[in-house]
Every structure is written in structure tokens, then in C-alpha cells.
Design brief:
Elements lengths: L13 H10 L3 H17 L4 E6 L4 E6 L7 E8 L2 E6 L20 E5 L8 H13 L12 E6 L8
Parallel strand pairs: 1-6
Antiparallel strand pairs: 1-2, 2-3, 3-4, 4-5
Length: 158
């Protein structure tokens, strides 16, 4: 009897997995997610992107390390739209009163479009989040795309 040859499918690359997660969304929201990610990658090239395709939200967290607790901010999306979440937002200065939420830690802003990320008041809070980061963002190199979790069940993305 001949030995049975086991074949395994190679795991999809993180970039391919990310594309698949985003494709679950309505095309207009998927376009917003891709555009916001492009802005963030250009602005913070040394940050790691930690991806979570959770039950309630799809999240891309921007971190100074590979640890979720070192997250500065995240793009968070569901079927209704996308937002920018500040992991330690309650500790950030908010002179323009743009941050939403009342929890003990997290704050967020809704993103109508990726251009919202370039509004001066948003950039000011993002700058404060980067300055607050401990450890700081690396000054050189490239961040990694890391798929952290995929929930087996999810709310509809469309």
C-alpha cells in the first residue's frame, strides 16, 4: 500500500486575509476602510497594524509594538460606517470636544470619509496619542500587518 500524501493549503497571507475581511462590507464602506488605511499607513509607516475581524466590529489597530495594549488608535468598522477609536482616549487632551464616548478608557470619532483624518482637530488628537505612546513609535523601519483574531460568528457587514 502506498503512503497517503497529505496536502495542506498554504495559509493566506495577512494582506490577502485583510482584503477578504474588507470585501465583506458594502462597497462604499469597503472603499472608506481602504482609503482610511492608506492615509494611516502613509502617516504612520512604522506602526504595526493589528487586525481583528470580531463579532461586532472589524478593527485595524495601530500600535508601537505587537501588543494590543500598545495601541494608539484604530480604524473600526461595522455595517453602519467607520470610526477612529483612541485606545487611551480618555487620557488625551480634547480642546475641540470632538471625542465621543464616556467609558473609562476609549474615545472615538466617526469618519464620514478618509479626508476626516486630515482635519486639524483630528490630527491634533492623533498627535497627542502618538506622543503619549509608551513605548514610542519606532523612528525607522516598516510596521507589520498582523492578523490577531477572526471571530467564527460575526454580525452582518452589509
Amino acid at each position: 500500500m502506498l503512503p497517503v500524501k497529505k496536502t495542506t493549503q498554504p495559509a493566506a497571507s495577512p494582506a490577502r486575509q485583510l482584503a477578504g475581511f474588507i470585501s465583506k462590507f458594502d462597497p462604499s464602506i469597503a472603499t472608506q476602510i481602504r482609503a482610511a488605511r492608506q492615509v494611516m499607513k502613509r502617516r504612520y509607516p512604522t506602526a504595526n497594524e493589528l487586525v481583528y475581524d470580531n463579532y461586532n466590529f472589524f478593527v485595524i489597530g495601530y500600535t508601537t509594538t505587537e501588543k494590543p495594549s500598545d495601541c494608539m488608535f484604530s480604524i473600526a468598522a461595522n455595517s453602519k460606517g467607520i470610526g477612529l477609536s483612541f485606545y487611551y482616549g480618555a487620557a488625551l487632551p480634547d480642546p475641540h470636544k470632538i471625542l465621543l464616548g464616556s467609558g473609562s478608557q476609549n474615545r472615538f470619532v466617526r469618519l464620514e470619509t478618509a479626508a476626516t483624518l486630515s482635519k486639524p482637530e483630528i490630527m491634533e488628537v492623533m498627535k497627542a496619542a502618538v506622543e503619549q505612546a509608551d513605548p514610542p513609535l519606532p523612528s525607522r523601519g516598516r510596521g507589520r500587518l498582523i492578523i490577531r483574531s477572526v471571530a467564527p460568528r460575526q454580525r452582518p457587514r452589509r
